[in-house]
Amino acid sequence: MDDRSLADAPGAEAGGPVAPSRCGGHARRPLWPLILLVVAFASSALLAQYQKKPPDFGGVHAFPTPTHPEPRGVVLLSLDVAMLAVGLGLGAYFVLKRRSRTGTLLLSIAAIAYFGFYRKGCTCPIGSIQNVTLSLVDPRYIISPGIIAFFLLPLLAALLFGRVFCGGVCPLGTVQDLVLLRPMNVPRKLDRVLRWIPFLYLALAIFFAGWGLPTVTSSGKAIVLRRFLICEWDPFIGIFRLSGPFHMLAIGAGFILVGMFYGRPYCRWLCPYGGLLSILSRVSWKNVTVTPDKETYCGMCADACPYGAIHDYNADRATCVSCARCYECCPREIVRLRREGIPAKRYVSVPGGRGPA
Ligand code: SF4
Ligand code: SF4
Description:
Helices cover 49% and strands 4% of the residues. It contains 16 helices and five strands. Strands 1-3-2 form a three-stranded mixed beta sheet, with no helix packed on it. Strands 4-5 form a two-stranded antiparallel sheet. α7 (171-179) packs across α12. With 357 residues, it is mainly alpha-helical. The protein is globular. β2 (213-216) and β3 form a beta hairpin. One iron/sulfur cluster binds at residues 126, 166, 170, 172-173, 266-267, 271, 273-274, 277.
C-alpha cells in the first residue's frame, strides 16, 4: 500500500463511521497463576545450585569455554540487573501507557549504549539460557543470582506486558531496528515456516549446553564436550566489541545487510530467547493494541509493521516485538495525539504491505 492521506482513512475522525472494536481494549487476565509459574521456575533454577549429589556422567567432561568476559563483581552485576529492571519498566511504560515510538526508540538507544557497547553484550538473557541449563544439569557449575535474574526478568516482563524486552531493551534487537532502511515483506507462508527455526535452535543450544557430545581428546581421553552455541554464534557481539573472528564479523555483516530490507531477521528467524518470549507473550496480561479505541479496518498498521506482526488488524501477541511503530500510522492514534497537542508523525508504508487490497 502506498502513502495515504490520513484524512482518507475510513473512520479517521472521532465520531466517524466505524466497525465494532476488535482490538481497542485490554482483556484483563488473572495475574497470580503467571507469577506462581515464574516463581516456581526461578526456585528450581536456584535450588539446582545446591543439590547434594552431582550426577554421574560416566566419565570426565569439560565445561564450555566462556566466550564472554568473566562475570563482574556483585555490586556491578547488581547494577546491570537494576538497569535491566528499569529498562523493562520503562519499556512497558512507553509501549503500553504512553504509546510512544519516540520514547521506545530513545530507550532502545540507551540500552544498546549500555548493554551493547559499554557492557559488550554480556551479560545477556539470550546467552543465559545456556548458563541456566548447565546449572540445572550439573550442580558443579555455579552461576550467580544476577545471571538467573537476567534470564528470568524479561520472561516475567513478557508474561505481564508482552515482549517489551525486545522492543526497548535488547541491544541485538536495537542494532537491527536501527539499520532498517527499506522494509519489505516476506511471503506469509515462508515467514511461518522460518519462525520455527528459533525453537530448533533453542533445543540444540539446550542440548549442547547441558549434555554435549562425547568425544575423545588428542591425548586419547574420553570427555563430554559441552558448547555454548548461542555465544559462539552471536552475530552482533563482534559489533559491540569492535573486534572478533572473521567468520563472526562476516555473519554479523550478513545479518545487518539482510536487516536493511527485512526487519529484524535474527529476532524473527533465529533468536532462541525470542522463541521463549513469544510463548509467554501469548498469555501476557497486557500487550500491544494498535488502535487506542475503535477499529477502523483501514489496514494501515499492517502496512507499517516491518515485522509482519499484524494479522486481521491485531498485533499478533507472539510475533509483535513491542516496537510501537504501528501506533504512528493508526488514524485513531493520530487523532488522539492531535487532541492531546502532540505533533503526529507522517505515515510510512512497507512496500507490498498487507493491508486490505
Ligand atoms: S528476539 Fe532475541 S535478539 Fe531479538 S530483541 Fe528479542 S531477545 Fe533480542
Ligand atoms: S505490531 Fe509490529 S509495528 Fe506494532 S508494535 Fe508490534 S512489531 Fe511493532
